Amino acid sequence: MTIYIDIVLIENLIMNSIILLATGLILKVKIRIIRIIVASLLGAIYSVVSYMSILEIYTSMILKGILSIVIIYIAFNPQTIKQMWKNLLIFYLTSFVFGGAAFALIYIIKPQDILMKNGLFLGTYPLKTIILGAIVAFILIITAFAVVKTRISKKDMFCKIEIQLKGKKIETTAMIDTGNLLKEPITNTPVVVVEHTLLYDCIPKEILNHLEEWLGGELEHIPEAIKEEYMAKLKFIPFSSLGKQNGMLVGIKAEQIKIKVEEKEKIKENIIIGIYDKSLTKRGEYRALMGIELL
To answer: Does residue 196 share a domain with residue 92?
Structure first.
């Protein structure tokens, strides 16, 4: 069986390019085609050298690892060690999926002339077979990562919390909001935003149903006993959100909050409860918003 070096080079250049392209799409990094091609060409040249057994040292696992790092730096130019290891991990995972798809395709088409040398599958099967395998693997891995990411995101988006306020306990579901950096400005205490209807057993309805009046200082219709008890306890928390650049929340300090993640509990003390006078969601999937830093 005659194997042409240029075919080996082209096949590996195509496969490497598609693997790196898939890796870049999964990582959501800026993809530069010239970098992808140069990195893929380096990998393809390694395949040719390995096949021809020009240098036995090229079969070393250490040098293969170094080559992978060089390919990642050329393709994506990671700026930190952490980014480099993340890129390298996804690159290897993607390569394994492509390898599995290649094995499956070889099993299905059962080419007559095929051999393995220095870790490379070689044969006289047409180039379109290689491209078809690469396309199938590309679709598989992009779809798989999208599904896994969606499921993980939904699972990690919510948690159960238990608020202890004025000696009473309130349980609800909170959404973990990565953009929620809300803090009480004087003490820099984190704020958990909660729907006002959850607090009816803890705080007088004269406060909860008239939050705008408390913010505006219009307290004529509020009983004096309530004003005296809560005037010093209530906090005023400025916030910005889409459509409301200079908003204000009424808040009150909770004794503690229990955060339940899977089967573990974390207790946070002296957290401010920001009282929201509307519903956070139409379907009631969650009734509180919590910043990720509390985890």
So the answer is: no
